[in-house]
Amino acid sequence: MPASYNIVLVVQDRGLRGALTARLSIAGVSVTTATTISAATLRRAVAHDIALIVDDDMVAHQPAGWVARMADEGRWSGIVILAPDSWPRHDLGSGVSVIDKGDPTAAILDQLARWRGERAAALKAAETSPPQTRSEAPRTGCAH
């Protein structure tokens, strides 16, 4: 995992937050931790390749539809929700992954790599697609 991958980790459980920070940092991920999603947290999330990782406790304290709105903003390269298997997984929006919070490190790293691969493939496809041609504007006026 490249060191340039950045995440914002918002997990209420101190033990889980500390363990994930250590494990993901060792794996080369740049981790910013927070206990809430505040304006200051969002200002730090200015990199183009940054994922948001939250736990189910944090999501439970947000208004209905919060996850989908965060995903639709385009600020995050992806959102991971750490939750038990029984947590509801509907209406989350695209770019959202729910991972079991029991031992999530490997699954988080796999998901980050998958998102990075998807973005790289999309960029490559955009680079190799033929350029868009502009249609010729209609001619007006007199012919000489």
Give a verbal description of the structure.
This protein is α/β, with parallel strands linked by helices. It contains five helices and five strands. A five-stranded parallel sheet has the order 2-1-3-4-5. Helix 1 (14-26) links the parallel strand 1 (6-10) and strand 2 (30-34). It is globular. The N and C termini lie far apart (65 Å).
Low-confidence stretches: 136-144
Question: What is the oligomer described by this structure?
Answer: single chain
Strand order of the largest sheet: 2-1-3-4-5
Residue share in β-strands: 15-25%
Distance between the termini: 65 Å
Q: Quick one: overall form?
A: globular
**SSE string:** EHEHEHHEEH
Q: Mind summarizing the main beta sheet? A: 5 strands, parallel
DSSP strand count:
5
Instruction: Compute the number of helices.
Output: 5
- Helical residue percent band: 25-40%
Cα Rg? 20 Å
Backbone structural class: alpha/beta
Q: On the 0-100 scale, what is the average pLDDT? A: 80
Features:
144 residues, alpha/beta, five-stranded parallel beta sheet, 5 strands, 39% helix, disordered C terminus
Summarize the structure in short.
The chain is α/β, with parallel strands linked by helices and 144 residues long. The protein has helices at residues 14-26, 39-44, 56-60, 66-73, 105-128, and strands at residues 6-10, 30-34, 50-55, 78-83, 96-100.
